[in-house]
Design brief:
Blueprint: E1 2-4, E2 7-9, H1 12-33, H2 39-47, H3 52-104
Antiparallel strand pairs: 1-2
Helix pairs in contact: 1-3, 2-3
């Protein structure tokens, strides 16, 4: 999309590109969400109950990470959906306007 004095130009290809980036980001976040799963239980398993405070802190951090990743992934997916909808609506509006203009043209008159 570009903007000049009083003008806004929409590029459906650019909207698709942005949507694809948001979808890729959402997939990468989903993949990263589980990277630290099990760290807390490993602390407990390898260090025993003597490290209960460390285990509790690691468990809380794991839970917070999962929630944060889910929230960011959800926002990226919502952005992607909005961009895809905008692209579809723009293309529909553009096609309708083109058809309307074509209907006004009378070649050979």
């Amino acid at each position: 999309m570009t903007e000049g004095p009083g003008e806004l130009h929409v590029s459906p290809a650019h909207l698709r590109e942005l949507s694809d980036k948001q979808n890729r980001g959402a997939h990468q976040i989903a993949a990263a969400t589980t990277l630290t799963n099990g760290v807390a239980s490993e602390v407990e398993r390898t260090h025993g109950r003597v490290c209960a405070p460390a285990f509790a802190a690691a468990a809380a951090a794991e839970e917070a990470r999962v929630k944060a990743c889910a929230a960011v992934q959800s926002v990226s997916e919502a952005f992607a959906g909005s961009l895809e909808l905008a692209q579809a609506q723009y293309l529909t509006t553009d096609a309708n306007a083109r058809d309307e203009l074509d209907g006004m043209m009378h070649p050979g008159r």
